Amino acid sequence: MSTGTETRPTWVEGADGSPYDVDNLPYGVFAVDEEEPRVGVRIGDQVLDVAPVAAAEMLDVHDVFNQPSLNALMALGPSAWASVRTWLTRLLTEAPERDVVEPHLRPVDEVRMLLPFEVADYVDFYCSIQHATNVGRMFRPDGDALLPNWRHLPIGYHGRAGTIVVSGTDVVRPTGQRKGEAGPAYGPSTRLDIEAELGFVVGTPSDLGSTVATSAFADHVFGVTVVNDWSARDLQAWEYVPLGPFLGKSFATSVSAWVTPLAALEGARVPLPGQEPPPLPYLRVDEPAGYDVAVEVLLNGEVVSRPPYAAMYWSPAQMLAHLSSNGASLRTGDLFASGTISGDEREQRGSFLELSWGGQEPFGNGRTFLEDGDEVILRSTAPGTLGGRIALGEVRGTILPARP
Ligand code: CA
User: pTM here?
Assistant: First the structure.
């Protein structure tokens, strides 16, 4: 049993050894009653209201915490992110700080969590070879499951930033056009699905015309969020040829309320499973370039899948290098997501499309796609740097009936 401060990492009660210990410290934006939303840091089951503490301590960047989004903090860049993290760790571990800091802790269930960052652009990739193979087999049964480009570049598309919503936001069943028995039909989607993904949030921008090397990943990426990229498979299957995803994806994408700093995932880094053939030089990475993040998909409280992020073929550093390889600039608040995470096993598939094999093989309690009233929760954990496991923020969403 620990008795002295030297063996007790944090003085916050209940936080020591929890999934939100001092080796995690994710950032979010919270609101209480009529107060202005501002930046919070999670420790245990508490949210630290950072702004008043930063002001009292005259931190030179204290203004970035009294903001309704993380963008100002994210724009400061990696040396400031590291300094702030060191400062926060000191506040939460050194006993003399307790009197100043403790009055600014609030129970997490007494605050409202808001969308943590102002989303600039949204790019969604397709980086799981298991997912791409499964979808290819279902959507193109007579052709090759993997198209010839797949092993040479991380396939992606630009999504819709304005429909990214925070965990807890209800999702209205989308309406749209699909292929019917006697020609195209229009109506509520009949094959509404999830996609369990991780998302990477850009802090440091880049100049138009410049490229970002794989080695510069940590200079630009502030942190990681869990993503549910809701997908209407009937709309998607009809519309996606030849330009790719459009309305089947753009109606809603949910992200966690907490953004986990990249530094908190240092203990989760693992080598990629292997790339064959080796990618072109601009996509080569220094290993370990993958992340050992374990994801759980819960449908109405039951775990229906456990997708392993460590199985992903393309790394986030390669996604970033590729999306900027034409000189496209990065902006603070850009979000790029991995694409559905699927492992080798059936119970590791990150979408209902794959779990039910296109609706032909019901899973769980005879389920194929989402029904009105269903609640989906994505939970994720990863090895922390102190030997335990840290939690990424959960992503929760409930399906509401289509609007008439
Ligand atoms: Ca997706």
Answer: 0.96
